[in-house]
Design goal:
114 residues; mainly alpha; 5 helices; rod-shaped
């Protein structure tokens, strides 16, 4: 009896994976085993970096708030502490945006917490 293999499903599965390998360099885009390994590694990087992106943005916001607060004679930690005491519930993302795009509004916040 001849060996039965489900070529249709196997090809469909490989085709779906190879679609993800589009744009890769060299064998990574057209050799099945190499492409599969690279796709799996790419998915790991993507998963990891979705977490890292959040860290990176938080670091950026803190740097921007710190720079803007220091222009008004205050350190970042002192500014954030006084914000908490004053009961101002603005998150770092909004504060950083104000510091960059609306310095007058940021100055008003600094004056309010001083």
């Amino acid at each position: 009896m001849p060996r039965s293999v489900n070529v249709v499903a196997a090809r469909r599965r490989r085709k779906k994976m190879m679609k993800h390998a589009k744009g890769y360099f060299g064998r990574k885009k057209n050799v099945w085993t190499v492409a599969k390994n690279q796709i799996e590694k790419s998915w790991l990087y993507a998963y990891r970096d979705r977490k890292n992106r959040k860290r990176e943005f938080r670091k950026l916001w803190i740097q921007r708030i710190n720079a803007a607060a220091r222009q008004h004679g205050m350190s970042y930690s002192a500014f954030m502490g006084k914000l908490k005491k004053a009961g101002v519930e603005l998150n770092r993302k909004v504060l950083a945006d104000l510091a960059m795009n609306d310095p007058a509004a940021f100055k008003a916040i600094v004056d309010a917490v001083k």
